[in-house]
Amino acid sequence: MTRQTAALLFSTALATMLAGPLAAQSQGDWTVGIGFGLVNPKSDNGTLAGAAATVDDSVRPTFTGEYFFRDNWGIELLAATPFKHDVNIGGAYAATVKQLPPTLTVNYHIPTQSAFTPFVGLGLNYTTFWDETSPLGVVEIDDSWGVAAHAGVDYDIGNNGALRMDVRWVNIQSDVTLNGAYIGEAEIDPLVWGISYIHRF
């Protein structure tokens, strides 16, 4: 999967906004979801200690809960088990870090007359880092606040269930210190690819 795929998914969702008038979700509905998410940082993750930094991918279980405050409009919280990433500086292993990226998003579920319900959303991400380990010394990565964009599609499988494929772009930029000295800013800005089962209550 590529960033071009994410752009295509987002534009496809927007293109269906003139579809039929049926409500995808009703005011007062709740949904919960369980699945897996792939955090895929962008290829250029900034400069640390004067050299190019890269952060590798990580896959972990994810959980969502969404409340529909109006027909087709929901506020969703994304949670996950801790993601774990290796960090390379100048092509050499430099550190391992864990992170959690809870994300709160307002989603618009686009009504259609089919089993497919696309959606788009915008929200806020908070990423916290901990358990940094490094052969270089004491590494610390600051927590991050940033915007998050969301797009995807649900496929209705009956009995109030749906299969979801989605992607998020998350703005994550954090100051990094080594042995107490500032060494640069990690520019992670990942795509978060997801697949999950969604149940409506």
Task: Give a summary of the structure in a few sentences.
The protein has 201 residues and is mostly beta strands. Helices cover 6% and strands 65% of the residues. It has a single domain (3-168, 182-200), classed as Porin (Beta Barrel).
Explained architecture:
With 201 residues, the protein is mostly beta strands. The protein has a single domain (3-168, 182-200), classed as Porin. It contains one helix and 15 strands, in the order αβββββββββββββββ. The protein has one helix at 3-15; strands at residues 30-40, 47-48, 51-55, 58-70, 73-80, 83-89, 92-100, 103-109, 116-133, 139-141, 144-158, 161-170, 173-178, 181-187, 191-200. The strands form two sheets. Strands 1-4-5-8-9-11-12-15 form an eight-stranded antiparallel beta barrel. Strands 10-13-14 form a three-stranded antiparallel β-sheet, with no helix packed on it. Strand 8 and strand 9 form a beta hairpin. The longest helix is centred in the N-terminal third of the chain and has 13 residues, at 3-15. It is elongated. The two termini are 32 Å apart.
